[in-house]
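Q: Got a minute? One more chain.
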Amino acid sequence: MSRSFGRLTLLSLAAVWVIWGSTYLAIKIGLETLPPFFMQGCRFVVAAVAMAVFLRVRGHAWPTRPQMRNASMIGVMLLIGGLGMVTLAEDRGVDSGLVATIIAIQPMMMAMWGGLWKVWPNRMQWVGMFIGMGGVAILVADDGLSGSWSGVSLVFVACVSWSFGSALSRRIDMPDGPMTTTFEMAAAAVAFMVLSLVSGESVEAPSLRSGLAVAYLVVFGSIVAFSAFTHLISSVSGPLAMSYAYVNPAIAVLLGVVFSDESVSVNMAMALPVILVGVAIVTNASRPSAETAREEASTVTS
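A: Always. Here it is, folded:
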């Protein structure tokens, strides 16, 4: 097997690194006039329906019932337990820098979950993950890191749910290709709408600003980036698939500089190279080889 990544994998990495780094800002803008569960429910209803129609027109077959069930279960773990809790935490005023710092532990959590199937990161992957986390810590060290304990706890719940769902999805029977994303988003859409109804969220007409933010989340945050992540989680190592956790905070800060006239702090100037070094180490240590591919295939099918 070649030790180089294909174009689709490289594009998928770029998508989750850049696009998901921008969704912190988009979610905050959406929450200005929309309640959290309803906002995410609308996002995934539109995205799931659009993808389902597109795939059926292109002739994609429906997955089997077990595959539908598995994809729905993983969708709830990733998008309700993961993204939903992050959205609720941001709605409760948790500082985005603190959210980014906590989320940076997801790759190590996923590595630990992988140990349940006797698949552990190699030494250099561990080194890269710790360096990446160090860079994120430098980046947000002067942010104040304000937030309620309940909100902070929700972010930790999100990390556990997303990382376990990601690890589990690599080892159960899932639909082929983009059908995985479609059913994960459909299950999340239903769950978000139920949560919105049960929690009694009050919905009013959103502002144009919030509406555009949700549209961005539908097209780029859901259809493009989540599809890219689904590809990565099934085709590359766990640490590399989760490396977005280190890059996203840097992207979020850069967007703040561009769109909110924020200045580049000393911490930012120090953190960005550290984060990039960590990602480079994880990426290089994650390049596929014939031996590791055989080992993972043996572990997954055993």
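A: Confidence is low (pLDDT under 50) at residues 289-302.
Q: Perfect, thanks.
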